[in-house]
Design brief:
The complex is a heterodimer of chains A (801) and B (209). By secondary structure, chain A is of the alpha+beta class. Chain B is an alpha+beta fold and 209 residues long. Chain B has a 5-stranded mixed β-sheet with strand order 2-1-5-3-4, sandwiched between helices. Chain B starts with a helix and ends with a helix. Classes of the chains: A alpha+beta (801), B alpha+beta (209). At the A-B interface, α1, α3 and α21 of A face α3, α5, α6, α7 and α8 of B. Bound molecules: FE2/S2 (inorganic) cluster (FES) (2 copies).
Chain lengths: 801, 209
């Protein structure tokens, strides 16, 4: 890297001042002249068919401006989610929306909508749907096969095998892959462990719900929403509305949390947009916490079996997994696929088979949630490695190192190769930072009714994509403008990745404006701010755009001042002749010259591999300065993954089942560090969030009415400040560059949740003398039931308990 | 004990107490905190309890005249009538603390306080913390210096609670600070940094020797 040195140093995010003074505007903070309000009619039943919807009484109310019904929204096919449903597939699915001059009137009008709905049989638990004669979540079936809705049922005998005490060898599934000779690998194993597990579904619950406001002007729609990724949201919305994306303006400067639930905004953002079109007024549609639980998003639960064969030194030889995914009503979630990939990468088995089926249920819609599939895999399988280490008498950390993916490790059904991994170094670092060799002895130490548990979790996850566009310009004010089409989630990557450009141009951060959050400002085509792609994808795109800008500066200077482009250097807002720094142009002068020169300097001529969205963004700025827009040209050989190792100490009260967290230490291998302080916060936040997932967050349904009874914070129960150790958490990043990307940085949003959940479950298992709680959330009642050996009141494979 | 007394005695007003207050104010519970009427329609419909009254509120040191419905929450008045959108709504039901403001220096959930009940009280919101010439409040400065918060939707609420907490206990331990902040949720789980910020805020707030 250059010696400007912004990469790798702490900085206060430029948008922080707005956030702490109340000036930061989130979606519900915008107002428009003549703005009216929408309220929604939600499905009262988990699955039904609307026989009739009479809107007359609502429309007769003073102050009501219009009603949006399923007939007003684009029709859909297959298992796609509709904007409004005639055949709702979960309780709380939007059926209609009323716009009125104020929210009270809109709500009263919703009460006057006369809905006649036929109740249909519904499925809440995937296993129920797989039973002979069990309910299907959709018309035409309960699973997706080859892109079509299909039906899969197990015989009573097959169901019993799934629910029995031993690993079920052959059950019909929709998806299956294997590598290596599984039978031989198990035969060669000295220890085989098999275990059933249930990881529950859970709502993302961003603190900011998905409220949105929309209005139309001259055929263009303006949508203020909460999204993870601005440019990608614009394209998605244009698709939903069947409009040119140039006529869709997305404004989302701040996003109050999302965790995968707002990757391309929300389909429900189309409700205020379409309603606004219908009534001719700006429409604000606020989303309550209950509504967020209903049509916000949730992580798919996984239920199934794992069987692992170990060599006597702890090496994983064979791994066999069978997972049933609680899919919700639409599409098909990728968690069950990632589950297999993560295990394959994490343990590098010589042979592996992964079987899975995603079953439709009439429960809230799913989407990726931070480390989709990876969290579930790491959380449930790491404690089994603990058990193996105990039984084989090998050190858990030595075993982690023995199995860890290192360097260009291969994984998954296609045996893809990593770009790099430095897990051996991370294990060593974690052992040292946590004091593993001393603290592992604390396991099982009793103090009154409390027992100490010590655990570790290793979690890898995808850490980057490539191939997106960078857009940077210098305006005649001499400042550098870095346009970012990614979102602003609070990970600070929106700003951190911009700094890659500053280092190339040796340009001071204070003289830099980052432009983001409003497609009306001309934003390039960008990755989704999800799957930990951004850090990798946009350090690359900005690095490339800065290089191209640098070349243009050199050319302009050479043209004006003589010599060849290579004679010039760029730093501190100037392009100057090497060896004679007095000869040169300021950025302001260079911008003026670019405008005069036109062509490839002013944005008139562009590379032809740019995405149309980037081209459109530049078109509006032609002639405003020296413009550089390029598509990420760098090679990207291999799959980019990062990982986190978390160690923790807990105390479990054997009388009450309450778990107290005492210490948490995390180490990450995520390539070059961009912003140490933000990275640390990101990892700690993820680790704690993963622990929240494993310990507290819960879904339960009324079996008769299909209603979710954990709709709010106090019942769904995300972790609070009192649950985390009051002593500061500890952290280290390896800061070893990934060789397959110019800045060396990989993303790391996802892995900490799996590491946190795995460490916590392992620590609890350690405290309980190796007794493994094979389902989440590990609430106190489950711990007490396990210790007392009492009946639990739910089946071995039952979900939502 | 009046509702007002209950509210001022304890910020963690129970939902039940709050609903009783709303019912006493002549409105239905469901329309109390989330729904509101714009001027005109409310009167036109003549619904019970739908009459706005002009009152004076002291917000961030200024007297503001505002028409308020009997069932209107302070959060709605601040956000939709006074343009103070820094106060966030995360749950609207006294579960998350995103809406925390100070009433006479004491943190309250603005989603669960009726505006009518805080007449003649001093209300401070996140917008009122920095001085008029832009100097940050010591608590804001501490958060800034720690680069605290991620998505920051919880930040205004946490900051207001920190300000209130430090007035009661200027020398908190980390555990005491966690207790004081336990009525606020951060879904990004940035709790470690929040506690770092709060401890630094305590340091900045102490009178310099
Ligand atoms: S919005 Fe008031 S406590 Fe959550
Ligand atoms: S920083 Fe996102 S909720 Fe606290």
């Amino acid at each position: 890297m250059s010696d400007n040195g912004l990469i790798g140093t702490d900085h206060v995010p430029k948008d922080l001042l707005a956030k702490i003074t109340g000036r930061a505007k989130y979606a519900e903070d915008f107002r428009a002249d003549g703005m009216v309000f929408a309220k929604l009619l939600l499905s009262p039943v988990p699955r039904g068919r609307v026989r009739s919807l009479d809107v007359r009484a609502a429309m007769d109310m003073e102050g009501v401006l219009g009603v949006l019904t399923p007939d007003d929204v684009p029709s859909i096919s297959g298992a796609t989610e509709p904007i409004l449903a005639n055949e709702p597939l979960y309780q709380g699915q939007p059926i209609a929306a009323v716009a009125a001059v104020d929210e009270t009137t809109a709500a009263e009008a919703v009460e006057r909508l006369r809905l006649d709905i036929q109740r249909l049989p519904f499925a809440l638990d995937p296993v129920e749907s797989l039973r002979p004669g069990g309910p299907n979540g959709r018309d035409g079936g309960n699973v997706m096969k080859d892109g079509e809705v299909d039906t899969l049922k197990w015989s009573s005998a097959e169901i019993s095998r799934f629910e029995s005490d031993t690993f079920p060898d052959d059950l019909p599934v929709t998806d299956e892959w294997s590598v290596g000779d599984l039978e031989a690998a198990f035969a060669a194993s000295d220890l085989v462990i098999e275990e059933a597990m249930v990881y529950q579904s859970q709502t993302h619950h961003p603190l900011e719900s998905r409220s949105a406001m929309a209005y139309w002007r001259n055929g263009r729609v303006f949508i203020h929403c909460s999204t993870q990724s601005v440019s990608q949201t614009r394209r998605a919305f244009a698709g939903y509305l069947d409009m040119d994306e140039e006529d869709v303006v997305v404004i989302s400067e701040f996003c109050g949390g999302a965790f995968g639930s707002k990757i391309r905004g929300s389909l429900s953002d189309m409700i205020p947009a379409l309603l606004s079109q219908k009534v001719g007024r700006p429409v604000m549609r606020r989303v309550t916490r209950d509504e967020e639980t209903a049509f916000g998003r949730a992580r798919p639960g996984l239920q199934g079996w794992i069987k692992i064969g170990f060599r006597s030194d702890g090496k994983v030889l064979a791994l066999d997994s069978l997972m049933i995914q609680d899919n919700g009503p639409f599409g098909r979630s990728g968690d069950m696929v990632m589950f297999g990939n993560v295990l394959s990468l994490a343990y590098q088995p010589e042979a592996m088979r992964h079987r899975a089926t995603s079953v439709f249920t009439n429960t809230p819609p799913r989407s990726a949630q931070r480390a989709p599939g990876g969290l579930q895999g790491s959380a449930m399988v790491e404690p089994l490695l603990d058990r193996a280490a105990r039984e084989l008498g090998v050190d858990r950390m030595a075993m982690m190192k023995l199995n860890a993916p290192q360097g260009r490790a291969r994984f998954g059904p296609n045996q893809n190769e990593l770009t790099s991994a430095f897990v051996h170094e991370a294990v060593d670092r974690a052992v040292e930072l946590f004091g593993w060799n001393e603290k592992k002895e604390w396991n099982g130490r009793a103090n009154g009714s409390k027992v100490t548990g010590v655990g570790v979790g290793f979690a890898p996850f995808v850490g980057g994509s490539s191939g997106f566009d960078g857009l940077i310009l210098i305006r005649p004010d001499g400042k550098l403008y870095i346009h970012q089409g990614i979102g602003n989630l609070g990970t600070h990557s929106m700003l951190d990745t911009a700094r890659a450009a500053n280092d190339v141009l040796q340009h001071p951060w204070d003289d830099t404006e980052v432009v983001w959050g409003d497609t009306g400002k001309g934003l390039p085509w960008s990755s989704t701010q999800s799957g930990s792609q951004t850090t990798h994808a946009h350090t690359r795109a900005n690095h490339a755009a800065a290089h191209a800008l640098r070349e243009k500066l050199q050319e302009i200077a050479a043209g004006d001042l003589g010599g060849s482009a290579g004679d010039y250097d760029v730093a501190q807002g100037r392009v100057f002749r090497r060896g004679s720094p007095g000869t040169g142009l300021t950025f302001a002068q260079a911008a003026e010259r670019a405008i005069a020169l036109g062509g490839r300097y002013s944005g008139e001529e562009l590379p032809d591999d740019l995405d149309p969205m980037t081209v459109h963004a530049v078109r509006r700025m032609v002639g405003e300065g020296l413009i550089s827009a390029v598509k990420d040209p760098y090679s990207h050989d291999g799959s980019t993954w990062s990982s986190v190792i978390t160690c923790c100490v807990v105390e479990v009260d054997q009388e009450t089942g309450v778990v107290e967290m005492k210490e948490i230490v995390s180490v990450t291998d995520c390539g070059t560090v961009l912003n140490p302080r933000s990275l640390e916060a990101q990892v700690h936040g993820g680790v704690i969030q993963g622990m929240s997932s494993a310990l507290l967050e819960r879904w339960a349904f009324d079996p008769r009415w299909g209603a979710n009874s954990n709709k709010r914070f106090y019942t769904a129960k995300p972790i609070t400040i009192l649950d985390v150790p009051s002593r500061p958490l500890e952290f280290a990043a390896l800061d070893m560059a990934d060789p397959e990307t110019p800045v060396g940085a990989r993303g790391v949003g996802e892995p900490p949740v799996g590491a946190g959940a795995a460490a916590l479950i392992s620590a609890i298992t350690g405290a309980l003398g190796g007794r493994y709680l094979n389902r989440t959330p590990i609430t106190p009642d489950k711990i007490v039931a396990l210790l007392e050996g009492s009946r639990t009141g739910y089946g071995r494979m039952q979900t939502h308990v | 004990m009046s509702i007002l007394d209950i509210l001022s005695a304890d910020r963690s007003v129970s939902r039940r107490t709050f609903i009783k207050g709303v019912i006493a104010a002549g409105a239905t519970a469901s329309s109390a905190s989330y729904l509101f009427r714009g001027p005109g329609v409310a009167r036109a419909q003549g619904a019970p309890g739908a009459v706005e009254r002009l009152l004076t509120l002291n917000v961030n040191g200024q007297d503001r005249r505002v028409d308020v419905l009997p069932q209107e929450t302070l959060a709605m008045t601040l956000r939709y009538k006074l343009g103070l959108t820094g106060t966030k709504l995360g749950c609207d039901r006294a579960e998350c603390g995103a809406c925390s403001v100070l009433v006479d220096g004491v943190p309250h959930y603005a989603c669960s306080v009726l505006t009518h009940q805080v007449r003649n009280r001093r209300i401070t919101t996140i917008e009122g913390l920095a001085s008029s010439d832009g100097d940050l409040h010591p608590v804001q400065q501490a958060v800034y210096d720690e680069a605290g918060f991620q998505c920051a939707f919880c930040a205004p609420g946490f900051i207001m609670t920190m300000v209130g907490a430090l007035q009661v206990n200027p020398n908190p331990t980390r555990a005491e600070m966690a207790q004081a902040l336990s009525g606020n949720l951060c879904r990004c789980a940035d709790y470690d940094k929040i506690l770092d910020s709060a401890m630094r805020a305590a340091e900045y707030s102490r009178p310099q020797a």
